[in-house]
Amino acid sequence: MRASEILKTFGLGELICYCSKVFEGEIKWAIRREFAETVDDVSRRTWACDGFCNGILCMKKVQKILETEGKNPDIKNFVLRREKLLYPVRKYNEELWNEFEEFKKKVL
Fold first, then answer.
1. How many helices (DSSP H) and strands (DSSP E) are in the chain?
2. Angle between helices 24-33 and 59-68 (to 10 degrees)
3. What's the half-sphere exposure (Cβ side, CA atoms, 13 Å) at 58?
């Protein structure tokens, strides 16, 4: 039932997270209907930032949507907390890890 409401209200929109198959409409629903204020809030209300990449690939997109919706994404705390969970990425996907490191430099 919720899926049809999301589609009717916000549409599908862009694919935000390839790991978790989360779409822009779901993020907007979480913000406007479930009162998500930060990237952590969106992560708890959707599957965004919880796939194999642990948010490396989608947190920038979620951050942008939150900012567009007038919210403060609190990306710094999200990045610091997620860094501890990223050992498998660091060990097995150097390119993805390097992308995270570059993003971390910008937000910290």
1. 7, 2
2. 50
3. 27
Distances (CA, A) of 101 to 18, 47, 74, 107: 20, 22, 17, 10
Report the residue count for the chain.
108
Model confidence, pTM: 0.86
Is residue 33 packed enough to be buried (19+ CB in 10 Å), middle (13-18) or exposed (0-12)?
middle
Task: Say if CB 50 and CB 26 are below 8 A apart.
Answer: no
DSSP 36: -
Terminal CA-to-CA distance of the chain, rounded, Å?
40
How far apart CA 65 and CA 70 sit, in angstroms, is 9
Residue 41, pLDDT above cutoff 90:
yes
Res 82 pLDDT > 90: no
Alpha-carbon gap, residue 23 to 28, rounded angstroms: 9
